[in-house]
Design brief:
CATH class of the largest domain: Alpha Beta
Helix content: 10-25%
Number of helices: 5
Strand order of the largest sheet: 4-3-12-7-8
Number of domains: 3
Strand content: 25-35%
Bound molecules: ligand MTE, molybdenum atom
Shape: globular
Largest sheet: 5 strands, mixed
CATH superfamily of the largest domain: Oxidoreductase, molybdopterin-binding domain
CATH topology of the largest domain: Sulfite Oxidase, Chain A, domain 2
Distance between the termini: 26 Å
């Protein structure tokens, strides 16, 4: 799409304008008080038409925060390491920067991306397509930080704490992640796309978990605590769980019939397609595909509801767990409404399903993405 970066910024500002107006209108008069409905979190998704770059620019990257971030003061900020370690520590950012640098380009997708597309409707932020982006994250390996503290073999789960502080009795966003995954792939990032990590994305330090859903990617990290058991609480035992078996739409499972959301499901979206076309002419179609597997094997396009498929061309740029851009020259054959759809297959052989399995929290939506084009003679 032909947006330059100034247009993109303006676009986002315009998108935020109704929010600001609503805040103004809600200014309480003397004697009145507001009811706090949530933590005034900022949640913003990116329009699909802007997700055409291999690396999503920082100012276009979606934001999902449960509560008002209580942003750490970078001067006073310390990373506390305690729990199952020989040498508990308090590290400054410059201590961390003395460790070997680690960098990865990979997808961050909110587990709830696409929740708004499920029927029956599921409560929660009604994300459609854009709670996803691909960025170059740079920092230090979790493994290096924990080995320096002498992590014990008794530790099986890394408890991760951010500095955000929910109001009243609302449960804190506290999580843990299997030691095996976080030691293999986890990065503590202080830089995003070559710039210091922006505050909304977790400055001074956030966790990167390549291939896994966004709820594991703790922002504003202040404490890491390796433990024998997983963390308890609402965000481990109730939220971010996915059914062990496919259920009927609209029917809820019990928490013990579900397990934590981890790896992303294989998925592709169309970001570029004409709105109108003429039969017999060729048009550029494009999009991205990603998965919880490190690579995308192929992306196929259909304009006959999946009866026949043609392979799209994969862009040469790729990194493990990054998204893969794809493009395709599509020639509509007859007039009328054409419905184009894309289907991705990953390096583990998982094929994107026609319909995502309905689940009560609306996680990991990955149905085929259909786009309509009006074709004239
Ligand atoms: N401390 C903290 N970390 C957090 C969250 C949060 O609310 N608090 N939200 C998580 C969720 S659900 C997602 S999808 C990602 C979103 O990261 P982003 O805002 O940088 O896109 O951050 C994760 N890390
Ligand atoms: Mo999320």
């Amino acid at each position: 799409m032909a947006f330059d970066s100034i247009d993109r910024r303006r676009f986002l500002l315009l998108a935020a304008a109704p929010l600001l107006a609503a805040q103004k209108a809600a200014t309480p008069r003397a004697g009145e008080s507001m009811l706090q409905m949530n933590g005034y979190a900022v949640n913003a998704e990116t329009p699909l038409a802007l997700l055409t770059d291999y690396v999503t620019p920082n100012e276009l990257f979606f934001v999902r925060s449960h509560w008002i971030p209580r942003t750490p003061d970078p001067k006073k900020w310390r990373l506390t390491i305690d729990g199952e370690v020989e040498r508990p520590a308090q590290l400054t950012l410059s201590d961390l920067k003395k460790l070997p640098r680690a960098e990865t380009t990979c997808v961050l997708q909110c587990a709830g991306n696409g929740r708004g597309l499920y029927a029956p409707t599921v409560p929660g932020v009604q994300w459609r397509y854009g709670a996803v982006g691909n960025a170059r994250w740079s920092g230090v390996r979790v493994r290096d930080v924990l080995e320096r503290a002498g992590v014990k073999t008794t530790a099986k789960h890394l408890h991760v704490f951010g500095s955000d502080d929910p109001p009243g009795k609302v449960p804190p966003f506290q999580r843990s992640i299997e030691m095996e995954k976080v030691l293999a792939d986890g990065i503590l990032a202080f830089s995003m796309n070559g710039e210091p990590l922006p505050v909304v994305h977790g400055a001074p330090l956030r966790l990167i978990v390549p291939g896994w859903a966004g709820d594991h990617w703790m922002k504003w990290v202040v404490r890491l605590s390796p433990q024998a058991e997983s963390q308890k609480g609402f965000y481990m035992e109730t939220a971010y769980r996915y059914p062990l078996t496919v259920g009927a739409p609209g029917v809820a499972f019990k928490p013990e019939e579900m397990s934590p959301v981890t790896e992303l499901f294989v998925k592709s979206n169309i970001t570029t397609a004409p709105k109108k076309a003429k039969a017999g002419r060729a048009y550029a179609i494009g999009g991205f595909a990603f998965s919880g597997a490190p690579d995308i094997a192929k992306v196929e396009i259909s304009d006959d509801d999946g009866a026949t498929w043609t392979e799209a061309t994969l862009d040469p740029r790729h990194d493990p767990y990054a998204w893969r851009l794809w493009s395709h020259r599509w020639t509509p054959s007859r007039e009328g409404t054409a419905r184009i759809c894309a289907r991705a297959t990953d390096s583990n052989g998982h094929v994107q399903p026609r319909d995502a399995a309905w689940n009560q929290s609306g996680y990991l939506h990955n149905s085929w993405h259909f786009v309509d084009v009006e074709v004239s003679a």
